[in-house]
Amino acid sequence: MPEERMAAETGEPVAARRILVVDDDEVVRTALNDYLEFHDFEVTATASAAQALEAIAGSDFDLVISDLVMPGMDGIALIKAIREAGKEVPLLIMTGFASIEQAVESMKAGASDFITKPLKFDHVMLVIQRILETAALRKLAGEREYYKDLSNSDGLTQVGNYRHFHYVLQQEIDRQRRFDRPLTLLMIDIDDFKRVNDRFGHLAGDMVLIKIASLLRDEVRGFDYVARYGGDEFTVILPEISGIEALAVGRRIMASIGENEFASPAMKELSRPSVTIGIASFPQDAGEVQDLVARADEAMYAGKKAGKNCICVFGDEENIIRLHPPAAPGA
């Protein structure tokens, strides 16, 4: 087994990349095994697809190199079995000159590339390096996307966070200004949320936040943006929607929360939470991000003063609309 290589940049040891070779031809299998080990790869060589699947089930590999034509399970069937098992390992197919069409079929099935027999080892190494570099770049891109999503999301509720909300709102306002279209912001506060934490504990409170975030996502369009603004406050950005039109969204949200059951971790039924919603629109109520947020906040606090569990549209005090949902059955 090759010793660990040293990374040139850090001097730290780097584990050898692992390759699984699958070929029923012992001559080819042995030659490829020896060549790859000479170039510091850690190699496992098997004589059949069945043996390869056993090896893959028990270990992780950076690359699988498989013959296309083998008795029993061939290379294409092996590719499909690996993919069905949820393994994303790159696959390189070996084929004879007469089997190019099958090699193309193998790539359609999920292979990364193919090489022809008899093997030219310099070419084999170039293809292997290209596949491994591509896999490394895809992994890096996936990690970057993951951490980007992580930095933009609220850790508890998995909706947008405060910082990313302001970024998205600015982008949307710029876009709506460019196309002379409206945009509406909902500011949503859970009424008396502190009582849930005090009576049932913070875990129950977290479950309420998670469920309300989920209900908000369910009641808006796919391109609307839901975020957790602070402790028990959420916001929803509604592009292409006026303040009056947003009332229908607010009603749906309140109805959804009112119809769903909430239970504590100990399965004790919680009193159904209610929310107060403030609505402000661009450009009618404000032309800038901070002003629009402030107007939606004002409307929401006006709803709190009006008795909570209502929707308020920003406007002059005498023109604020208060829409209380109907009482729940049996209330």
What does this structure look like?
- This protein has helices spanning 26-38, 49-58, 75-84, 100-109, 121-152, 162-179, 193-200, 202-219, 243-259, 289-305, and strands at residues 5-6, 13-14, 18-22, 42-46, 63-67, 91-95, 113-116, 183-190, 225-230, 233-239, 275-282, 311-313, 321-323.
- It is α/β, with parallel strands linked by helices.
- It folds into two domains: 5-150, Rossmann fold, CATH 3.40.50.2300; 162-323, Alpha-Beta Plaits.
- The chain is elongated.
- The protein starts with a strand and ends in an 8-residue tail after the last strand.
Please summarize what this structure is.
Helix content is 46%, strand content 19%.
Q: What percentage of the residues does DSSP assign to strands (E)? A: 15-25%
SSE pattern, N- to C-terminal: EEEHEHEHEHEHHEHHEEHEHEE
CATH superfamily grouping of the largest domain: Reverse transcriptase/Diguanylate cyclase domain
The second-level CATH architecture of the largest domain is 2-Layer Sandwich
Low-confidence stretches: 1-14, 323-331
Rg, alpha carbons: 30 Å
CATH class of the largest domain: Alpha Beta
The total count of strands amounts to: 13
Summed up, the helix count is 10
Largest sheet: 6 strands, mixed
Query: Number of domains in the coordinates?
Result: 2
